[in-house]
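Q: What residues go here?
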């Protein structure tokens, strides 16, 4: 196991995404990871597992080692929540996730960016139920996160809706570049784990916020310690005209 990472490092499974992007002269878009960055929780998936008293540790290990793909990973997670005698609904998951707190300083940080006409986005392999709630509360412009299929009664159907591959977040960044028509050079990415490194490698500025992995510290252009997102504002001030 790579001792630099909290979990089995994704770089044991895939190669670095090498790019040659210059540091920004101006920031026009900031991409945020969600879990541990915009929200004060390790994982939206784990938050639900904790509620139901289930564990996905085996699936996490097999996924990170490349033994299963993202869709199988989601399918296994959802299967742990399903109860034949008491079907779990999307509304129930939303109710559970409603207790997830925003990260301290997140509102102040987003307001600062909005006041300077900087667009914001969430790119997360977490649940879209939480990502959409966070986006609504903070006024974030773009949301990319993963979902769960439901039947016509709103009950979870066991299959996932894959929008962000955890170990390939640069794919989503490229989609966002096309959608926003903003150069990667003028995009900053904010994350806290080794899974955010592909975003750092694809954007002009990578900011490790309260990082949980040493490898993300090494790759980031800037490291901001502590669980207060407003501490990032002085970094943005350097790139806002």
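A:
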């Amino acid at each position: 196991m790579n001792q630099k990472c909290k979990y089995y490092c994704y770089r044991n499974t895939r190669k670095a995404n090498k790019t040659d992007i210059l540091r920004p002269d101006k920031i026009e878009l900031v991409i945020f990871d969600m879990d541990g960055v915009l929200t004060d929780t390790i994982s939206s998936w784990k938050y639900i597992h904790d509620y139901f008293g289930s564990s996905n540790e085996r699936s996490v290990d097999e996924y990170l080692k490349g033994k299963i793909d993202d869709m199988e990973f989601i399918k296994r997670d959802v299967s742990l929540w399903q109860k034949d005698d008491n079907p779990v609904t999307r509304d129930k998951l939303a109710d559970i996730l409603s207790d997830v707190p925003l990260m301290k300083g997140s509102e102040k940080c987003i307001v600062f960016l909005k006041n300077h006409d900087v667009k914001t986005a969430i790119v997360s392999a977490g649940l879209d139920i939480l990502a959409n709630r966070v986006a609504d509360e903070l006024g974030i412009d773009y949301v990319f996160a993963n979902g769960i299929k439901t039947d016509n009664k709103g009950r979870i159907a066991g299959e996932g809706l894959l929008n962000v591959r955890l170990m390939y977040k640069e794919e989503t960044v490229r989609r966002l570049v096309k959608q926003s028509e903003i150069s990667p050079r003028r995009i900053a990415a904010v994350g806290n784990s080794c899974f955010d490194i592909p975003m750092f490698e694809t954007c002009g500025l990578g900011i490790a916020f309260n990082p949980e992995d040493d490898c993300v510290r090494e790759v980031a252009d800037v490291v901001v310690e502590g669980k207060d997102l407003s501490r990032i504002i002085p970094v943005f001030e350097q790139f806002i005209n």
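A: Context that may help when evaluating the design: The two ends are 44 Å apart (CA to CA). Strands lie at 29-32, 119-127, 142-150, 156-161, 187-191, 205-209, 222-224.
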